[in-house]
Amino acid sequence: MTTLEAPAPPTPPTPTPSLRPKAVARTGLYALLAANAAVVAGLFAAAGFDDNALILLGRLTGLYGALIMAFQLVLVARLPWLDRRIGMDRLTSWHRWTGFGLLWTLLAHAVFITYGYAQAENLPVVTQFAELATTVDGVLRAIVALLLIMMVGAVSVRAARRRLAYETWHFIHLYTYLAVVLAFGHQLAAGRTFAGSPFARAYWWTLWGLALGSVVLGRFLLPLWRNLRHRFRVTAVVPESDSVVSVYITGRHLDRLPARAGQFFLWRFLAKDRWWQANPFSLSAAPDGRSLRLTAKALGPGSAGLRHIQPGTRVFAEGPYGAFTTMHQRTPNAVLVAGGVGVTPVRALLEDMAGHVVVLYRVRAHGDAVLFGELAQLAHARGAVLHLLTGPNDAQSEHGPLLGAANLAALVPDIRSRDVFVCGPPPMTDAVLRGLRELDVPRDQIHAERFSLAS
Known about the structure:
By secondary structure, the chain is of the alpha/beta class. Helices cover about 50% and strands about 15% of the residues. It has three domains: about 1-15 and about 330-450, Rossmann fold (3-Layer(aba) Sandwich); about 20-220; about 230-320, Translation factors (Elongation Factor Tu (Ef-tu), domain 3, Beta Barrel), CATH 2.40.30. It has helices at about 20-45, 55-75, 80-85, 90-120, 125-135, 140-155, 160-165, 165-175, 175-190, 190-195, 200-230, 300-305, 345-350, 370-380, 405-410, 425-440; strands at about 1-5, 235-240, 245-250, 265-270, 280, 290-295, 315-320, 335-340, 355-365, 385-390, 395, 400, 420-425, 445-450. The strands form four sheets. A six-stranded mixed beta sheet has the order 1-10-9-8-13-14, sandwiched between helices. It is elongated.
């Protein structure tokens, strides 16, 4: 283990915000969902209860399925206000789990409606299903939408997701938008609440308009506007080692780009053989208003090909994304824990972080320590402490596992009074989080970045 330490210069304490941005955004989302759930319940009641119990359950699950589908669109719209406060990794996780909830809700809707009408008409279930599909306007569209959602759900199961290239999974996931359009068409044609009152029609049109509008804004219009405004272009490609390369990017009016240290972009390099690939890479230096830098290790075809990009190549960048920033710092001092490619946002954060900082950099061997020279220089310049923790995954210190609770407490005795920012491979991140829980570090002082994307 290597430790570099410099005397800490006096730094003004970071004011603790009275309201946590993450808590505000999360509470706002929950309140919005609860308010809409209450409105849907009111619309359901206003439509009357003259059907049998199964049909009523089918109607109710259909209405809540529509609400969940609209909520899902908001979660993956990549709206800057939400993303900066909650983070794409957490929003993606919520999107995934509500997706499975949506699938079961829509399946329940189909089953209850079919069995309910079969009971009312005294017909076999299969006959009733065929009759609904062929005679009721909008039902066939709903069946196609459900089949598309089932297909997307199947490829989103972890076992299937790992076997697919991201581009393939993303292409299949785009069928969700077709399912949304078909489901809304079914609701227009057969939805009882649409025919119930002008208020119901206005509500559903507004809900779907805002949900789809948020996707168009966050996923298409905002990235297009930013790229037209900034005109990103590669200025230099610098090998950092045999397997690591840094790409420097400049553009117009970068001082107006709302990027912060710790965030990442989806980079699309507009070269002949790469324009169709979008890869997520974090900024490896704090934005200075003049240029951006990303640093990547050759872990796959996308990152390995970066060293062959020519200066002058145009870049289409989506972002910035991520909540791994000083916006969420709660205490005057901090601990930054990095491993693997997680060192890139940590290196940028070290430039931007206020107060006294301790950096724990976990690698298998000293030669794997990407950007270590820069980290050491930054640590010395700002009076931070830098610990390089080396060894195999099961390496032990005199206090136990390198990233276990005892060693964390030995390296940072006042860790309970600091914010802790963790970014690295999932096993490393999980080990650190376990250690922090054992040390009773307050949850609102723990910030972990997990790289994950949704369609």
